[in-house]
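// run 5 | inverse folding | seed 20
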């Protein structure tokens, strides 16, 4: 067993290697225009709020003039606009200027959306997914949609997911071999991989009546598990806010333990390290893999994340006068992430496949180094990133011969708005690794233990 110092040294060495393999534009933070825009927004809370409100109304705008009026309207509320914003507002003073500004804003939003969304449909995304695969990057497709409020919408989402499984399984058969992406110590990894949300499979998922939502989602999820098994695809169930966490976890573990799914498909769930009770959730999962789920032929993939609903969980708790269920100091989430990483890796032999989903070099380097120290093969830990946020990192991880999977949202611009806002918020948050990296924080500090 390694001493604490040598593990720390290994984490730093791994982090430095990953960092050196990043494109120079990321290492030198005065980078692309996108990054500069995000950096500007992250320094100014008022500007950030105005831009988010703007991004929210874009799908509803009917003309360039309309778009520009909204943009200048939101920006006009700023007490002290940055110089570049003041120029844009002057342009918005007349009709010609407004059309030009509107066109620029529309192009900017579209450009941003394309950065995070790979195509309007799975079929349209295939070219990008294949290119990623050729570059040594696997993918998981996520179908964006609006919140499901009717049974028809839930049915439509399930049908789109089933179709996506067919499309992906069909197309990926002809992809070139990439051994690092297709096998680990536990066996074959499907090329086709789809991530789904239970809240989109039922309109009835409510914290006050969890059984109703679970029952309603169960049939649709069963159908997708069957389809994934027939097509040899992997089905991953995302985790959302805490009010649905227990229902989603129970649903997934109950369905996967059914006899029908004894031999497949390959499937997985998500563990959120920002939740203070996440170690107990992992206990539940490990209890399942050695109990009700032990007869399954396939390991359960656990994707470890920090959690995407931090602000929501805080606001919800404050409104109800509850203690927040999430850590309130970022380093606590980071530390818990590392503790859960170690427990997951220690339990690989116990029916677990480990996927570390993060853009934080320290969190990733810690997982890789800890795995190596414990005698694990690199193939037994998968790194996952989000399209648009982890693009440079995915190539750097792939260049080390490690398996990396990029989560690729698919959908139209309107469906993508909520997703886009969540990603932008995350990227401009004060408490974010990517924001620190963009600000030019020194590598030694970025890699320091939380
Ligand atoms: C492939 C992939 C799939 C994902 N799937 C899901 C999913 O199913 N469900 C889900 O919820 N999220 C999911 N996420 C998002 C993930 O939870 C994180 O929001 C995101 O990855 C940012 O974390 P980081 O480790 O990359 O960055 P970091 O900058 O290291 O961490 C940022 C995160 O720290 C936490 N944080 C921020 N401020 C504080 C604070 N003051 N106190 C405590 N904690 C704080 C938040 O969780 C925040 O997102 C996924 C991410 C990836 C890469």
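// decoded
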């Amino acid at each position: 067993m390694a001493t604490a110092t040598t593990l720390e040294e290994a984490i730093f060495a791994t982090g430095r290697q990953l960092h050196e393999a990043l494109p120079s534009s990321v290492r030198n933070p005065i980078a692309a225009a996108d990054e500069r825009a995000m950096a500007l927004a992250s320094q100014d809370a008022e500007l950030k709020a105005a831009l988010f409100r703007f991004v929210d109304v874009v799908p509803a705008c009917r003309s360039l003039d309309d778009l520009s009026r909204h943009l200048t309207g939101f920006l006009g509320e700023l007490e002290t606009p940055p110089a570049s914003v003041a120029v844009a507002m002057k342009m918005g003073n007349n009709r010609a200027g407004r059309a030009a500004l509107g066109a620029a804003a529309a192009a900017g939003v579209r450009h941003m959306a394309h950065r995070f969304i790979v195509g309007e449909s799975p079929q349209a995304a295939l070219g990008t997914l294949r290119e990623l695969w050729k570059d040594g990057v696997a993918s998981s497709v996520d179908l964006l949609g609006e919140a499901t409020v009717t049974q028809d919408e839930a049915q439509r989402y399930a049908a789109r997911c089933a179709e996506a499984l067919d499309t992906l399984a069909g197309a990926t058969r002809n992809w070139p071999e990439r051994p690092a992406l297709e096998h680990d110590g536990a066996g074959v990894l499907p090329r086709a991989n789809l991530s789904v949300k239970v809240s989109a499979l039922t309109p009835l998922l409510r914290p006050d009546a969890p059984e109703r939502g679970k029952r309603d989602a169960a049939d649709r999820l069963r159908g997708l598990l069957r389809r994934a098994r027939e097509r040899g695809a992997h089905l991953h169930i995302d985790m959302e806010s805490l009010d649905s966490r227990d229902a989603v976890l129970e649903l997934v573990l109950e369905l996967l333990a059914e006899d029908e799914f004894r031999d497949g498909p390959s499937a997985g769930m998500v563990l959120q390290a920002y939740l203070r009770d996440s170690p107990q959730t992992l206990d539940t999962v490990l209890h399942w893999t050695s109990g009700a789920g032990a007869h399954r032929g396939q390991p359960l993939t656990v994707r470890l994340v920090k959690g995407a609903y931090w602000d929501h969980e805080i606001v919800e708790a404050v409104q109800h006068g509850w203690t927040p269920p999430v850590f309130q100091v970022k380093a606590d989430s980071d530390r818990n992430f590392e503790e859960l990483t170690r427990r997951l890796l220690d339990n690989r032999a116990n029916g677990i496949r480990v996927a570390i989903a993060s853009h934080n070099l320290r969190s990733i380097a810690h997982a890789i180094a800890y795995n190596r120290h414990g005698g694990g093969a690199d193939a037994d830990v998968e790194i996952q990133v989000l399209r648009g946020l982890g693009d440079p990192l995915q190539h750097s991880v792939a260049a080390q011969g490690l398996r990396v999977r990029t989560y690729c949202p698919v959908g139209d611009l309107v469906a993508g708005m909520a997703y886009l806002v969540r990603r932008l918020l995350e990227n401009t948050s004060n408490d974010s690794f990517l924001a620190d990296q963009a600000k030019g924080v020194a590598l030694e500090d970025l890699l320091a233990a939380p």
